[in-house]
Amino acid sequence: MKIIVAKKILKANDQLAEENRARFNQANVLVVNLLGSPGCGKTTLLEALLAKLDGRAAPAVIEGDLASSIDAERIEKLGVPVVQINTDGACHLDATMVAAACAEIDLDKIDLLIIENVGNLVCTAGFDLGEHLRIVILSVSEGDDKVPKYPTIFHKSDALVVTKTDLLPYSNFSVDRVITDMNRLAPKARILQISALTGEGVETLADWLANQCRRDGG
Amino acid sequence: MHELSIVDAMIKQVEREVRESGHDGHVVHLDIVIGRLSGVNVDSVRFAFDLLSPDTLLEQSDLRITESKAVCLCEACESRTEIDDFVAACPACGSEKITFEGGQDLFLDSIELVD
């Protein structure tokens, strides 16, 4: 006896992600899934970005890590509502974890939710969390060959942020190479260059997200 | 190793589908489709399946995996070429003005139960 199923394997996750998205839409909250490898500067970029929003958006943050609350403590210092998820070894966040974290956030009081995923360029790509935008980070210190080496995550992203650009004069990192590779894998994606350390480029990202919040009616 | 959580979700989904079909037989064959560009590794899926299927309806089931192809579209020579992986240039003319289509599948095709 044969059962024809023809359904997505991550259907349970996808369904919950759609429910999350419906909740976010109803509350007019723009949700960003921030991806990148460990040490690429996700939290540092987030700190710089939150400081530059200047009241143009009311943000909250969900931090995803295998263990510890180090990142959440950093965000808390900025006076931004934050929830830490510990995945206890899992290499990515999923829609269930985000739904649970959202129970701790008053969605009616915010219009921008940034979810910092677990540091990982592979596993995080396959799990929809209910976000509106996927932003992937690639730091100068990781090397300019990462886009074709980890194609899935770049292919599925709406924007690429090249971080730690203050290191460019000391490295052979080719921004042109990254732009060429990214244009091929995700032709519609925005590409930004930022140094969270000097602040260069942070304003552009802050403007973009603040405008998106307004467009979404947030 | 996100394949572990993918296979875990798949096993739960199969058990639910079997239950909802009103049958309670053991699963003999399971057909799934994994796209070549989905970022899901077939060997890791098999490894995770061997690890997670014991003591479920899928213990000892024959897991059959079809790998769906992707297409590379070239703006320069307007060709459509089937590819197994992301490529840096058009396999036909070498142009870098290319985009990709398909190969993102990850789905449960059919379940065959013991009669």
Descriptive keywords:
heterodimer; A: 218 residues; alpha/beta; Rossmann fold; 7-stranded parallel sheet; 21% strand; B: 115 residues; alpha+beta; hypothetical protein PF0899 fold; 3-stranded mixed sheet; 3-stranded antiparallel sheet; 2 helices; 25% helix; 33% strand
Note down, in words, how this protein is organized:
The complex is a heterodimer of chains A (218) and B (115). Chain A is an alpha/beta fold. Chain A has 8 helices and 8 strands, in the order βαβαβαβαββααβαβα. Chain A has helices at 11-26, 42-52, 70-76, 95-102, 146-149, 151-155, 175-185, 202-215; strands at 2-8, 30-35, 59-65, 82-86, 112-116, 133-139, 159-163, 190-193. In chain A, strands 4-3-5-2-6-7-8 form a 7-stranded parallel sheet, sandwiched between helices. In chain A, strand 3 (59-65), helix 3 and strand 4 (82-86) form a beta-alpha-beta unit. Chain A is globular and about 60 Å long. By secondary structure, chain B is α+β, with helices and mostly antiparallel strands. Chain B has a domain at 3-69 and 103-113: hypothetical protein PF0899 fold. In chain B, the strands form 2 sheets. Chain B has a 3-stranded mixed sheet, covered by helices on one side. In chain B, strands 4-3-5 form a 3-stranded antiparallel sheet, with no helix packed on it. In chain B, helix 1 (3-20) crosses helix 2 (42-52).
